[in-house]
């Protein structure tokens, strides 16, 4: 210990290590869960899933926590099983863009991300709707580009049916290409250009209805995990909504997608990877773990567990005990129950693997469904949750997380009040917004010069 001239201990001054690499910043977004296998809609503290006050509360909580954006999923058809509405869809599904246009009026900085389908929409109309949201919100719009794999949704539309995976991505890529051309076609101080496009999916000649919006293009989010989906993200997405949240799986996915960017002339920082994650907080880690186990039992009801297996088995399993063993029968070939679902390609292999796994670990149908539908989850005290999130980002397993609370609309409050301040103390999360647009929050550049040539020009 050193002393000063009076003999008193000299105060130690710790200067920052200027040779150390800067700590990676954590990005956070909030998912309004609606009613799905994440929400505990039977909880007494659960509010309305469609009343605007619920969207307003969650959005304002996220903005108070300085989150990047609010994320809304979308379903174009209520889920059904054997002609009956699934118990998770009994409250309905509002339109994402309609909700976010209203949320724009009660927030100031929070990004607004809508999931909208590229399989059953048209580029001109959707480009106009997102440009409108970007103008009305001052540059906070984002589009989560998704495709649809199930035939049931297709019955709601003129084309009917569904597209194979490769065709869905070909349509989505051409869709985004045309939308980008429309967003580019009315620069400041110039008359709008006519976008002429003739391709396999779309044939149009159109002028945009609005000039450049504050971001020019909304932030593009992509959620596919297949090889086609990863390539689609590397080619042009700004954010990947990933399901790979564990440290090991997250690092592998992060590395794979980021390395694909170079072939399209992009840098690693041009694309953010944000896995979905749930969280449960407690005063002790043990308390949080106990609460998390109870929540998972509430999230996966007996009916939900049976419906989950029916997607693979393709047969009515209502006669099976959800707390009993998995069916010892094989899936039904070409079952109408699973027409168009993602599992349909390898249902026999999936059933065999699940049956072997359940036998090895002595899992019931419900316990297997709980395990298979689990997301990355941060469970523990606020301190341990903050440390775990920071560790994932510093290890490049993610650039941040899209948090999915289990209660609507108050499920995010505790995280904002108890975890966000700890991330700020660690120096890995903003104390305030530095810019006004969603691209500012995410550190993403505004798209560059107008494209005068190309397939859509």
Overview features:
TIM Barrel, 15 helices, single chain, globular, disordered N terminus, FMN, 457 residues, eight-stranded parallel β-barrel, monooxygenase activity, two-stranded antiparallel ribbon, oxidoreductase activity, acting on paired donors, with incorporation or reduction of molecular oxygen, disordered C terminus, 2 domains, Diverse_substr_monoxygenases, alpha/beta, oxidoreductase
Quick overview:
This protein is of the alpha/beta class. It has helices spanning 52-64, 96-103, 123-137, 151-154, 165-184, 227-236, 247-260, 285-299, 302-313, 347-361, 365-372, 382-394, 413-418, 420-425, 438-442, and strands at 27-32, 69-72, 80-81, 84-85, 111-117, 141-146, 195-198, 203-206, 219-222, 239-242, 272-281, 376-380, 400-403. The N and C termini lie far apart (72 Å).
